[in-house]
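Worked Example 4.2. Read the sequence first, then its structure tokens.
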Amino acid sequence: MTYLPSVGLSQLKYSLPARRTSVRELAVAGQLHSRPETLTAFGFESAYIAQDDELNPALAKSVHDLLASAQLSPSEIPLLIVATGSPAPSPAQDTPEALEQFHFRSARLQHEIGAHEARALELVGQGCGTFVSALDLAARYLTTSDYSHALVVAADARPPGASRDVIHNLMSDAAAAVLVSRRSPMLRIRGFYQQSQPYYWETATKREEVLASYFPMTVRVITQALTAFNVPAEALRWIVPHNVGVRSWELVCRALKFPLDRVWLENVARVGHTVSCDHVINLVDMRSRGAIAAGDLLLLFTFGFGASWTAMLVEA
């Protein structure tokens, strides 16, 4: 797929819950499967935990702020994609309460922000990789239509009281919004590459196999993606990661012979992994700290249960 050369991520916003809890506090509360020493050794320090319905109004505010920055009204958004990294439970059959489970976040957000003209949909099925796939779909939509913008959003939260670590990765709740624009002044999408291994669809029963395949597949997909993009690894200014443990990226970089200091890991300790929002959080913070210059090539990489490995090439 060849995108329009100017299609890119023109506006990015994220929101984290007010409550921030340390690894030690989570251990005391019984919200960890892993030993706290293991998580801190992997680079994690704290997680953000949403209270009640905190994320939904936070997401709506992020969208309002994003549209204000872009000087757009909600009526100018033709496509709204809500990327859901955590699948919802299936509606119960033949029960009076079944209708209560048909509660669509895309429709709620569309109503709350007043984007009544938008085609609103939810994308699910690639776990933590869903958001990057949604960015790709939005870019393709703009490339093959006359529309100027598409809005991609996400808000993921663990259930109240649930464990805060998944296979030794500390999880935060977060919301994020990205405006994908036909004529973006920055972060232009140059390529998308994905490999799926649906054999791992039943994650809970294949936990050890998923863990064993993660590292070789990550190295393979990054290598093959760069080949497909015709970009040598040394041309990358940054790998913008999903915020899994620092130890994981040490192993990947060693296999790739890629410098670890060119993987943006600044948010692993503070935020950890957020299911869908890691790349938005990282890109916003990288730009605010002056870590990205015009023309820099960035490789966004993520893995999602299901399982899929995904890379997107972006030019700052």
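Now turn to a second chain, presented in exactly the same format:
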Amino acid sequence: MWSSCTIPPRLAHAALSNYHPDCPEKEAALQKCQKFAEQGLENIQKGRGLFLQGPVGTGKSHLSVAVLREIIENNLDRFGTAPSRLDLYDEYAFDGYQCCMVSVVELLETLRESVGNAKKKEAVRKKLHRIRRDDFVIMDDIGAERPSEFVEEQLFAIIDLRYRTRRSTFFTSNCTLKELERQLGERSVSRIFEMCEGVRVSGSDWRKKR
């Protein structure tokens, strides 16, 4: 199951147990994530999510993947396995909950490149189907993309569908909701606000300590 979640290699071993807070703010963020994971299936069923916000290098992506890992490991019988044939991606193709992680910046770049390219457009269609329909999706680094009408429209279409169908979504961002509103527009941010509990992940950049 884990291999079908499209987790990047650097985060493949992220777990709540190996997130080591170095300040009270990170400790509070960890506790909120632990609480979400404890009620993981109920949260997925009710379409609840988290909006993890804070400066770079504080472990937002780590925490989001760690929550997903915890939920899957505690409920292995409830999560399906991705089929080998990607053309089977439809709402009846899986037996169990499906999850994936996507870099928002990478997704938007792929969408731009697919314009006028039939081969790439088909690959993007399959990826978008998962992002729109999977029961639990991590949208990583939202707000890092350059704002434009294209960005606003593409992300609104995804966020709005997940909002209307009550699908559990995590967002990680360096931007506050107010800053995101300038990036994505009021419609998207209003939906994120209702879909997610805010988790502030502040503190120093771990990457600079290595």
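Notes for the reader: Strands lie at 49-53, 99-103, 136-140, 168-173, 196-200. Residues 2-7+21-78+98-203 form a domain with the Rossmann fold fold (CATH 3.40.50.300).
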